[in-house]
Amino acid sequence: MGWDRNQMAARAAQELQDGWYVNLGIGIPTLVVNYIPEGVNVTLQSENGMLGMGPFPYEGEEDPDLINAGKQTITELPQTAYFDSAQSFAMIRGGKIAMAILGAMEVSESGDLANWMIPGKLVKGMGGAMDLVAGVGRVVVVMDHTNKAGESKVLKACTLPLTGRSVVNRIITNMGVLDVVEGGLKLVELADGVTEAELRAATEATLVN
Fold it and tell me: Are 22 and 12 in contact (CB under 8 A)?
């Protein structure tokens, strides 16, 4: 049991607040755009130079020139603005983006984030993740709780190269929601059909009450 990718994205969309400027990372976070709560007006920023992203296009209506940071085709809105990378990262580094919802390979109990490379594997680049975690007001990570081998990705300490130290505020996985607090992680919510014992067994990080 637990949440699938779309349910995780829908839960992450509940983090959005009216009037916020928000950056969505590659992977599951890109699905958040389809679950923005009614009455919540947010402006989505993509570090490749777009402010005001719409939902994914219907089949046959894709525009190859309109893409997000993950190279997926998206749609524009009447208020969409376009700009170069310098202006995009000025927004991010200048603290203008309220929240980033990012994917991750690993997160530690102190909020360290590893989400840009696995040693020995070819990567296209680190993208904007390092700037995002340093410049935005709040960082929410959305990811699977364990890897394909069933090993925890919510760790005491990350083993992969770090994107940032002590930058994550909230972790949403297929098993539940965890907050980074003093001394470890605090369980906020369990996913459908998941018990606290199951989540604890799948978590290497320290869970505090």
Answer: no
